[in-house]
Amino acid sequence: MSTQVETAEFQAEAQKLLQLMVHAIYSNKDTFLRELISNASDAIDKLRLASYQDKDLQVDTDDLHILIEPDQEQRTLTIRDNGIGMSKDEVRDLIGTIAKSGTAELLQELKDTSDGAAAQELIGQFGLGFYSSFMVADKVTLLTRKAGEDTATRWESSGEGTYTIETVDEAPQGTAVTLHLKAEDQEDRLLDYADTRTLTQIVKKHSDFIAWPIRMEVDKPGEDGESTRELDTINSMKALWARPKGEVEQSEYNEFYKHVAHDWNDPLETIHLRAEGTFEYQALLFIPATAPFDLFSRDQKRGAQLYVKRVFIMDDCEELMPEYLRFVKGVVDAQDLSLNVSREILQQDRRIQMVRRRLVKKILTTVQELQSGDAERYKTFWENFGQAVKEGIVGDPDNSELILDISSFESTRDESEKTTLRQYIERMPEDQDAIYYITGNSRSKIENSPHIEAFRDKGLEVLLLSDPIDEMWVESVPEFEGKKFQSITKGEVDLDEDSEQDAQQKEDFAGVLTWMSTALSDDVKEVRLSSRLSSSPACIVGDNHDMTPTLEKMYRAMGQQVPRVKRILEINPTHPLVSGLRSSFDENGEGEDLTETAQLVYGMALLAEGGELRDPAQFTSLLANRLAKTL
């Protein structure tokens, strides 16, 4: 039986990505074989797991393996496995489209860069898997039959934007990917991938650790000098996590990471540990060198691969890794769990919870060691993953102190270098008892905020917190190393050393402050003098426990209704506009023109902090009228 052949187009973004692959953006074309072998290994893992979970599944698991079949005459290379296989719908979903978020961003960045190394790094962030076949092949044919199904699916494409798909009757269980190879081209680093010696070298380099036998017919010398073709296993099949650290080369770790993470770059850091005692397990974890494009996607999967006594149990075991460490990849092999363990059971398993706590602590202390011993690699880590890690300050109270310790923040001290909290505290004047900070949407906006003026004039360092998560954690963490966190946009800040002058100004401005508080009562709860301003006429601040405008917007964006918070208008008594306002009030009392001026002062203060006017049209009308009177 064979159904009608259907022709379909790739998803638009997948088509563009294919064109980039075909035109050889990635120079190390050998890695296509690692990607296909990794896919085959995953398929065998899934079949073995399915056979444990479904005793009625009629499958043969006695000789699970991967077979490499080069054909010099036909110029083809087939990678075959007897794993789980795919249904027709799965082929459409997994091969015909790219379902990962971030594809458009990847394509735009690839388009914008002319640097080959930068392009490789971008591709590595995305992980292309099956699509890498088109770097070395003019046409790719896939034949697959899912375990338990009677019919198979054939998929074929030349990478030009379309593919064909059909149902066929005869096919063994599993998947076979046949590459119709391009001609050898040494200048383009395109090797002869139908040559068994070349293939053996690539497998030894990139896939030696694969747990299943990788077989291929190779030439074996005979006693009479004649060579014969024999089927041979060309990988060692040694589980890296089960070997002592001293026996594993970093290059082996790197290749294993690329297998489990589907990344084309080397990892930034490797964590290899073994726990013995009441509950034994081994773990091999990796911190990537670059953030994946879906790091902040709701659909982004997290967690290590879970094995039990070297038997694959599940991908992306979320119970092993908190969400803020979702970028960590690797393997955990437990010795005392059931092979039939489910996600529901894992959620309640105290041993898994204990493993999770230990893994989290080990990852965070590893970052701490990078911070103190390798500044450049730590900087790379924090630039890629700092925003995600800071989520743990709120979500993981047991480790919030440690997370704060390994965190870095922008500050007014240096535009190019971030600071840790310990470094900030070491630089604090002896009489400073708080860690000053300001939150906002971007550094450029908040470092020019009026709130910072007096702090900058007096040489006081302020942390500039511009990540969305910063709005959350500063509300939940009271202090660090005995120093409280103090927002410079909340409460009263006393930076004025002249108390007599301060008392005199309060007396001089008492009348105009009372009047302005009444005139602006629809928008503010109070008008008072400020000691945090030096050059701006006014700023808006909140009480110590008020919700910030940014946090208020975040809650509203999430559909949560929060009451509108009235804030405080602080005015600068030394600014000509404010002193003129006071003089006019003292001489003439309140009037329409003076009320309009007060409204304009409030509106300017709101705009200066990046806020939104309640009635922009009224503000611009008032401004235009006041300007007209000056002409």
Automatic annotation (TrEMBL):
Region: C, residue numbers: 554-631
A Pfam cross-reference name: HSP90
Region named A: 1-343
GO cellular component: cytoplasm
MF GO annotations: ATP binding; ATP hydrolysis activity; ATP-dependent protein folding chaperone; unfolded protein binding
Compartments, as annotated in UniProt: Cytoplasm
Histidine kinase/HSP90-like ATPase domain segment(s): 28-185
Keywords assigned by UniProt, alphabetized: ATP-binding, Chaperone, Cytoplasm, Nucleotide-binding, Stress response
Residues holding ATP: 35, 39, 81, 86, 100-102, 125-130, 175, 343
Protein family membership: Belongs to the heat shock protein 90 family.
Subunit structure comment from the entry: Homodimer.
Function description: Molecular chaperone. Has ATPase activity.
Name listed for the protein in its UniProt record: Chaperone protein HtpG
Taxonomic lineage from the root: Bacteria, Bacillati, Actinomycetota, Actinomycetes, Pseudonocardiales
Gene field: htpG
